[in-house]
Specification:
AAA_22, ATP hydrolysis activity, 12 strands, AAA+ ATPase domain-containing protein, Rossmann fold, DNA replication origin binding, AAA+_ATPase, five-stranded parallel beta sheet, globular, 16 helices, Arc Repressor Mutant, subunit A, Helicase, Ruva Protein, domain 3, disordered N terminus
């Protein structure tokens, strides 16, 4: 029997609480590592989401869109925790999915459905299971599902007859373009747009963060400079703000105007390097990803052995189902031209013999490389694990 439908009062009973989601903000110099629990300025959007869930529409499909760093995923994370007692909740980041079949397999696993081989059979057992449950399926990076599967992915809208589908994306343009291309009539859906944070909201959020991690010393002028310049650079992207705060606190536990000016200057340089990284070949980007994985997070030691790097790059390629037959050393030599790294040879003692080992000297820390690689969608899952 399908679970009894919850009333709007049941679904909205916890709506008065503040949203609670921020990613971990770490001070890489000290042991400060706190989960930012207050998420302000999204109360209205949360209310609209809860109203949508509590509505009695037969077929439900909600899109949550907005520019990067405006809190889309964080807000849904908070809502999913609220729904867990009343619904079966499924969360899938579409970056995990190489095709629509893989998406179905992840759904099947989260629904605890017994394994089946044929795709049609998999789809049928999922549909049968959804008929028995009150289910909410949240798909982050929603548009990626249509990039890897195109026409086939439109089948997921048939799931919305038996489950609530929520997609998270920066915009809906790609979905609409694909639907026109394949002459698919999209079901009626609600598009909830999260507006960017204003400069004033960003300033208040930064002060909340500093209070949460018990940073008592800060210059109000520095906060204004931080939020204003970061806003001009990235709009209301809170992740960019958090990154600059984290880097400013790397050497000492206070926010000063000089420190902020220095970090923002570094951020401008990093942004330029980020644009360079996006133009590299896939194999060169994989080398930078391998270096990022090998560099210790808090260390200023930026030197690694070439054999270790080759093993790490091949390990990443294997995970991504990419061919291993690429000359890593040749690609590294090409990377020197971009001022990302240099190489040297060093003598090492191994099993009583002196051997010559080629070493890679990176010009950036692991955190800085992660930032420069952060726009590459194909690496998002791996970067999150580093």
């Amino acid at each position: 029997m399908k679970k009894k439908r919850q009333t709007p009062q049941d679904d909205l009973q916890s709506n008065k609480k503040q949203p609670n989601a921020y990613e971990d903000l770490e001070n890489t110099q000290s042991n400060v590592s706190e989960l930012i629990k207050k998420m302000k300025f999204r109360e209205l959007e949360e209310f609209e989401i809860q109203q949508f869930i509590a509505s009695h529409d037969e077929q439900k499909f909600l899109m949550i869109t907005g520019q990067p760093g405006c809190g889309k995923t964080m807000l849904l994370t908070k809502c999913l925790k609220q729904w867990q007692n009343n619904y079966t909740t499924i969360y899938i980041n579409a970056m995990q999915c190489k095709n629509y079949t893989e998406f179905l397999n992840i759904c099947k696993k989260q629904l605890n459905v017994k394994s089946s081989t044929a795709k049609q059979q998999t789809r049928k057992v999922i549909m049968d299971r959804l008929k028995e449950l009150n289910t909410i399926i949240t798909i982050d990076e929603f548009d990626n599902l249509f990039k890897v599967s195109e026409k086939e992915a439109f089948d997921l809208f048939s799931l919305s007859k038996h489950a609530i589908i929520i997609g998270i994306s920066n915009d809906i343009e790609f979905l609409q373009t694909q639907s026109v291309r394949y002459k698919f009539q999209l079901p009626q859906f609600k598009n909830l747009i999260l507006k960017p944070y204003t400069i004033q909201q960003l300033q208040e959020l930064v002060l909340d963060i500093l209070k949460q991690i018990e940073i008592q010393k800060y210059d109000e002028k520095a906060i204004k400079i931080l939020t204003t310049r970061a806003y001009n650079d990235k709009g209301g992207d809170m992740r960019n703000i958090i990154d600059i705060v984290k880097r400013t606190l790397r050497d000492k536990e206070e926010i000063t105007t000089d420190a902020v000016n220095q970090e923002i200057g570094m951020s401008v340089f990093d942004n330029k390097m980020k644009s360079v990284v996006t133009t590299l070949t896939l194999h060169q980007q994989l080398i930078l990803l391998g270096i990022t994985a090998l560099l210790k997070k808090d260390s200023i030691q930026l030197e690694i052995d070439l054999p270790d790097l080759i093993r790490k790059v091949n390990e990443i390629k294997y995970k991504l189902s990419l061919p291993l037959s690429v000359d890593v050393e040749e690609e590294i030599n090409l990377l020197k031209d971009y001022n990302l790294l240099t190489t040297k040879e060093a003598k090492q003692q191994k099993m009583g013999f002196k051997i010559t080992v080629k070493k890679i000297l990176c010009k950036f820390t692991a955190e800085e490389l992660k930032y420069q690689l952060s726009d590459l969608d194909a690496f998002k899952n791996i970067l999150q694990q580093l």
